[in-house]
Amino acid sequence: MNKKKLDLAVERSIISREQATQLAELWSAQMPHAPRFDLTHVLYYLGGLVAMGAMTLFMNLSWEAFGGWGILGMSLAYAAIGLWLASRFEREGHGIPSGISAAFVVALTPLGIYGLQQGMGWWPDDTVYRDYHRYIKWHWLYLELGTLATGAMIAYRFRYPFLLMPIAATLWYLSMDLAAMLVGGTANFELRALVSLYFGLAMILLAFWVDMRSSKSGDYAFWLYLFGVVTFWSGLSLQDSDNELSKFIYFGINLLLVGAGVVLVRRVFVVFGAVGIAVYLGHLAHNVFSDMWLFPLALSAIGLGIIYLGLLWQKKEALITERVHSYLPAALRELLEQRQT
Description:
- The protein is 74% helix and 0% strand.
- The protein is an all-alpha fold.
- The model has no long low-confidence stretch (mean pLDDT 80).
C-alpha cells in the first residue's frame, strides 16, 4: 500500500486524512528499512555501489605493487571502517546505509583472501585479482567460500536485505567455478550451461524459502530471486535444442516463469519469461513459418485472445484467487495475500 492509494481512499471518503497518516506511520514502523525510490535512497545505493565497484569490478593492476600482505592489510583497514560505519549508522537508526556499509565489507572479502594467499605463497598461477570478475577458474573457490562465510556472519549481525546482494553474486560466481573444478580445468560450454541451469533453480528455491520466512521483516529474497532467475534462465536459454519439441518445452517453461512472477509478485520472473517467449516466437517467425503469410495474422489473433482472457480473469479474479488460496498452506497463503495488497 503506497501513498497514492491512501490519498485515493481519502478522496473517496473511505478513510479520513488522519487515519491515512496513522496507517502510513504504522506501515513505516513495520518496515523501517524498506528501500524507497527517492533521492536520498538513490544516493545511498549509488554511493555504496561505487565503493563496492572500486574494490571489485574496477580494481586495477596498481594494487599488485603492494604485494599480498599490503593488499591484505588495506583490505582489513577498509573492512574495519565499513564495520564501524555500519554499527554507527545502525545506532543512529539509518538502516539502509548501515546495510550498505556491511555489504561493502562482504564485497571486500575476496580481495583480502587473495592478498592472504599471495602473501603466504599459496596462489597457484599468475592470474591477478581483477581477473576474478573476468575469468572462470577453479581456485577462485577459496575466495568465494570465504566470502560466503563472512557474509553469513555479517548478515547474522546486521540483518539488512541488501547484504544478500554480494552473497547472491558470490553464489552465482561459485556455480560457474564449480563447473571448472568438476572437469579439472576449464569447463566446456555445455557443462557451464547445465550447472547454471540447476544452480539457478536451487537459488530460486532458496529465495522462495527465505521469502516465506522473512516476508514480514524485509525483502531478503529479492537479490536471491534476481541472481537465481538470471542464472537459471541463462542456463536454460543456452541449452542445445535441435528439435521443435525442446524449443516448445523452452517456451512452456518461460510461460511458467511469467505465471510464477505474477503469483509471487516478482517482476524478474515476468521480464525474463517474456524475453524467452519473444525468443521462441522469433524462432517460429524466422525459421518455422518464414514463408507463411498467415503466421503474423494468427499471432495477432492469439495476442488479442490473451487480452480477452485478461478481461475474463479480471472479472473472476477474486473468486478464483480465493478458491486457489484455500488449498494452499497457511504460510504461503499469507505471503501471497501480503504481496497482493
